[in-house]
Design brief:
2 helices, globular
Length: about 140
């Protein structure tokens, strides 16, 4: 089974984006802030669509050193599509067997990133929990995702 989870976009002004998405009927469903990673994730969906089809707003905080904040050009503000899968190891193996690259292997048994032939990043998330397993646990990242 595969379940569509969310689409991620990077934003430079979370409040302005939230206000805009509210105009089309979306509501904030949850928020996560990471002091260590210096980012905020804000999930929004249409009423009743929580955990069915969400938009993830990713706000990367300005650098601590006061340098200019990150800007996004050339589609970099679009992050990835996300899907929950029954067995992340089997899914990644099928992708590799078909000649594609697993750019961020599921070292933790939970998350992986792959790309479509056109370079669109896809996040795969394990439904439930799998223990880390080889060869995945030792695999390095390849390229970007």
């Amino acid at each position: 089974m595969t379940k569509y989870l969310h689409t991620m976009i990077r934003v430079t002004d979370p409040d302005a984006t939230i206000d805009f998405l509210r105009l089309i009927g979306l509501e904030e469903t949850r928020r996560m802030e990471s002091e260590k990673g210096r980012f905020t994730l804000i999930f929004m969906s249409a009423p009743g669509q929580e955990d069915v089809a969400e938009v993830e707003l990713t706000y990367n905080w300005p650098a601590e050193d006061g340098s200019e904040p990150e800007t996004y050009t050339g589609g970099r503000n679009f992050g990835h599509l996300a899907f929950r899968v029954d067995d992340i190891y089997a899914t990644c193996q099928r992708i590799m067997d078909a000649g594609h690259i697993v750019h961020r292997p599921p070292r933790d048994g939970h998350m992986a990133f792959v790309k479509t032939p056109d370079g669109i990043s896809i996040e795969l998330l394990q439904d439930g929990h799998l223990e880390p397993a080889e060869p995945w646990a030792s695999m390095e990242n390849t390229g970007s995702w």
